[in-house]
Amino acid sequence: MISAGIIGGAGYTAGELIRILLRHPEVNINFVYSTSQPGKPVAAVHQDLLGETDLQFSGEIDKDIDVVFLCLGHGNSVKFLSEHQFSEETKIVDLSTDYRMADGKHSFVYGLPEFKKEEIKKADFIANPGCFATAISLAILPLAKAKLTKDEWHVNAVTGATGAGTSLSPTTHFTWRDNNFSAYKAFEHQHLNEIGQSLNLLQPGFSTQINFIPNRGNFSRGIHATAYTKFSGSLEEAKDLYMEAYKDAAFTFLVEEELHLKQVVNTNKCLLKLQKFGDKLLITSIIDNLLKGASGQAVQNMNLMFGIEETAGLKLKANYF
């Protein structure tokens, strides 16, 4: 069995990780570390786990575990790893932004399995992609892989309230979020950096703009993204490119149906729909921001790192009704 530890155990992504790993056939949770909840039952915070686990939050770590998941606020993973040492055999999956951008100083592999699978299999340290970055990258990277991104991208995406984490702010209160909709960080969202990095790796020299407008929706979880760009080929040619790009993908699927979030919420899937309007190719992409956009993808990466079935523990059923 793989011995796993979770750092930052009280947040949404940690709760999803615990839920997945408790059912994972190859994993045992060694500890769930939290500075705010030590000694308390995990199910007292993650109440969907009542009756399923006797785990308690720990104020200590086991440095000899097989894998550790960092579910810390952005900027805190670097600080935590500078203050805590794990064994040389411990693999690390970081869910923050801290190691996503290559800087030549660290050995973290960007963990987008659809495009980095072989590197992930050999990696000891994984930088798990951001939620918007996952949905958008899976929508646009097949064109970059084929060196066919010739013009700027226009992207509009909306995320649920869980995308903001558990910390309260004026825009996360129910009274603000309910029956409301808003844009934020237009053209400057932090996930643009990692999207651009991935695009340039597949299509070196790409320098045109990714025009991204992120939005807050009045629902709990999920991301619905639309991306379009000029494309001179036919719709069938585009579909062939995407089918080839994702022929070995465990969770990313090209579909003909109209997309809506209930098709993916509570799953590790990404569903993509392609449409052609004149000279423009439109790609719609949907994911669950907490699973394929965070904890589910983290477990998918762990599975690849340990050489076990990629889908282990992740055959989850959508909350359709």
TrEMBL record:
User: Pfam families attached here?
Assistant: Semialdhyde_dh, Semialdhyde_dhC_1
Catalytic reaction list: N-acetyl-L-glutamate 5-semialdehyde + phosphate + NADP(+) = N-acetyl-L-glutamyl 5-phosphate + NADPH + H(+)
Q: In which pathway does it act?
A: Amino-acid biosynthesis; L-arginine biosynthesis; N(2)-acetyl-L-ornithine from L-glutamate: step 3/4
An example of a GO molecular function for this protein is: N-acetyl-gamma-glutamyl-phosphate reductase activity
Location comes to: Cytoplasm
Q: What class of enzyme is it?
A: oxidoreductase
Q: Which InterPro entries does the UniProt entry name for this protein?
A: AGPR, AGPR_AS, AGPR_dimerisation_dom, AGPR_type-1, NAD(P)-bd_dom_sf, Semialdehyde_DH_NAD-bd
The residues annotated as the active site are C131
UniProt KW Oxidoreductase keyword: yes
Principal location listed in the UniProt entry: cytoplasm
Residue intervals of the Semialdehyde dehydrogenase NAD-binding domain = 3-123
Answer whether the UniProt record assigns the keyword Aminoacyl-tRNA synthetase to this protein. Answer: no
EC number in record: 1.2.1.38
Keywords for this protein: Amino-acid biosynthesis, Arginine biosynthesis, Cytoplasm, NADP, Oxidoreductase
Task: Tell me, in a sentence or two, what this protein's role is.
Answer: Catalyzes the NADPH-dependent reduction of N-acetyl-5-glutamyl phosphate to yield N-acetyl-L-glutamate 5-semialdehyde.
Recorded family membership:
Belongs to the NAGSA dehydrogenase family. Type 1 subfamily.
NCBIfam families associated with the record: argC
Q: Specify the protein name.
A: N-acetyl-gamma-glutamyl-phosphate reductase
